[in-house]
Design brief:
By secondary structure, the protein is α/β, with parallel strands linked by helices. The chain has 6 helices and 7 strands, in the order βαβαββαββαβαα. Strands 1, 2, 3, 4, 5, 6 and 7 form a 7-stranded mixed β-sheet that branches. The N and C termini lie close together (10 Å).
């Protein structure tokens, strides 16, 4: 039985291949702006649960993995920048600081309701101090605009990140080891 990855993220699809080759992608539309939670980590988990539940509702005989990533700075969630000004503002706020990246993961399998597993993986990310020219040059690329926090660790922003504390793949949007171990524990893999 193929696992359904409930995500439209191309990076998650790529990372899921490190977990298993036996998966398909189905997405459900969730109005992320309408969802609220007590903190960014809980927001990531709640969004993952909503995405997984929506896909599982349409395919109850399948294993469904839903994920969502939220970047947290000073207790606030940073979403995806809508334009260059927002990207510059986010990168300016992150420069020279440590922030958190939370990825919520929710797994449904046939015969389980509530989910078989749900967890949040958190990674600390340190940004180096950046010059205004660094920030503007990066904001002029395509990278910031489909990523929470306005950067991609796997792209040109790698040069801004001297260290992380936690799972690198979590920052890309899928905590590979944690997901793999959970799927093995559940007997899915």
């Amino acid at each position: 039985m193929a696992i359904i990855l409930a995500s439209k993220s191309p990076r998650r699809r790529q990372l899921m291949q490190l977990v298993t080759q036996n998966f398909v992608v189905e997405t459900a539309e969730v109005d992320e702006h309408a969802v609220q939670a007590a903190n960014p980590a809980q927001l990531a988990l709640k969004l993952a649960q909503l995405k997984a539940a929506a896909v599982f509702g349409a395919s109850p005989g399948s294993v469904v993995v839903g994920c969502d990533t939220v970047v947290e700075l000073d207790g606030a969630a940073l979403g995806k920048p809508a334009n260059q000004a927002e990207a510059i503002a986010m990168l300016t706020a992150l420069a020279g600081r440590v922030h958190l990246v939370h990825t919520g993961v929710c797994i449904y399998q046939p015969g389980t309701n509530p989910p078989a597993a749900a967890f949040t993986e958190t990674t600390g990310v340190e940004f180096a101090p950046l010059t205004p020219a660094d920030i503007v040059a990066y904001a002029k690329t395509d990278e910031p605009y489909d990523k929470a926090g306005g950067y991609g660790i796997q792209g040109a922003a790698a040069r801004f990140i001297p260290r992380i504390n936690g799972c690198y793949y979590n920052v890309m949007g899928l905590p590979v080891a944690a997901l793999y171990n959970t799927l093995v524990r559940l007997g899915i893999l």
